[in-house]
Amino acid sequence: MIVADKKPIEEIIEEIKNHEKILILGCNECVTVCEAGGKKEVGVMASALRMYFLNQGQEVKIDEKTLERQCDHEYLEEIRDVMDQYDAVVSLACGVGVQFMAEKYHTTPIYPGVNTCFLGVTEERGVWTERCQACGECILARTGGICPVSRCAKRLLNGPCGGATKGKCEINKELDCAWQLIIDRLKALGKMDDYEKITPIKDWSTERAGGPRKVVREDVQQ
Amino acid sequence: MRLQYPSDIKIIFVPCTGKVDVLHILRAFEKGADGVCVVGCLEGDCHFISGNFRARKRVEQVQKILDTIGIGGERAQMYNLSSGEGPRFAQFAIEMDERIRKLGPNPMKLAKKKAA
Question: Model confidence at A43, in pLDDT bands (50, 70, 90)?
């Protein structure tokens, strides 16, 4: 999922202080799971903002709504009828949702309510870690299902750098060396032969280096 | 025991303090409560193992939010006691009442009156 973290309320207040009718818009997908932008977080933020503005003597209308997703046309269309009631929206979706909202509702300012962090997993409640950088050319088949692009600080593709100590990365003692994990896993799978194979130079044009990306699937297009 | 404690405290029963969410406490303040105290079982004695620890974390979250928005984090407090400690409950109630009286009414009330 896409992992996001809450933005400080002070930052959001600073962005919206000159508006009078504001919609706090949550998303039911990834940001709900990582407890940054779901229905509950929308409720907490809206309640805090209502109290703040009332206490400041500012008359500000703050409403709450949470959509199924903010990255699909059909869900964003659900609020078309009410959008004219607001002069700003704080979107608690990831950066994708914020931008899609902004594209769809061209004349209403859309402010981000969370910091979008990475593609990752829930290790335990309250702890999320990165697993994928969406490089566009998956090499997990050759690396025992552990990604050196997202989990090695140097993104090395042919074995460890030599800086690791006791299986931990040299940039952070708490961070596992991705290549240590890969070697351990290849051993467990009995596939250490794969480790000896040289990975050719990766085509980074499918990653962000090639500019904004696009996937077109004619087979599913209408 | 017929213990005395301030009559302006309204008790809301919950099955476990772990049920109390940040949003519940914030809504109470939004509706004009001058203070909210969450009274849970003794730490380590939770029937549901960690309910009272969760409640404490949530109260701390609320305190931060209230400080940020200028309502005052001190208005939210967490207390722990066992179910057999009636006199302790009365003592907490008196303590909370005194604390809130020192802080004065919830600024929301005044602001709502002004706005009306």
Answer: very high
Question: Would you call A1 an interface residue with chain B, using a CB distance cutoff of 8 Å?
Answer: no
Q: Which residue of B has its CA nearest to A53?
A: B69
Per cent of chain A over pLDDT 90 is 98
Paired with B34 in beta bridges are none
- Structure confidence by residue, pLDDT tens digits, A99-145: 999 999 999 999 999 999 999 999 999 999 999 999 999 999 999 99
Contact B69 A59 (CB under 8 A): no
Q: Which CATH superfamily is domain A2-118 in?
A: Response regulator (3.40.50.2300)
> What CA–CA distance (Å, rounded) separates A186 from A32?
35
Contact between chains at B26 and A9 (C-beta distance less than 8 A):
no
What proportion of chain B, given as a percentage, has pLDDT over 70?
100
Domain boundaries, chain A: 2-118, 133-202
The contact set of B with A (CB < 8 A) is 21-23, 26-27, 29-30, 65, 68-71, 107-108, 111-112, 114-115
Q: Supply the pLDDT for residue A222.
A: 85
Name which of A33, A22, A34, A103 is nearest A70 in CA terms.
A103
What pLDDT digit, counting tens, does each position of B32-83 carry?
999 999 999 999 999 999 999 999 999 999 999 999 999 999 999 999 999 8
Q: What is the pLDDT of residue B83?
A: 87
Range of the domain at B45: 17-115
Residue B5 inside a domain? The answer is no
Q: Do A51 and B30 touch (CB under 8 A)?
A: yes
Is B53 within a domain?
yes
**Is residue B87 situated within a structural domain?**
yes
Of the residues A35, A51, A58, the best mutation for testing chain B's interface (the one with the most B CB atoms within 10 Å of its CB) is A51
- Residue B1 in any domain: the answer is no
- Report yes or no: A17 at the B interface, CB cutoff 8 Å: no
Burial A4-27 (b: 16+ CB within 10 A, else e): bebbebeebbeebeebeebbbbbb
How far is A53 from chain B, CA to nearest CA, in Å? 9
Question: A130 in helix, strand or coil?
Answer: strand
The phi and psi torsions of B3 (rounded to 5 degrees) equal -80, 150
Query: If you count them, how many residues does chain B have?
Result: 116
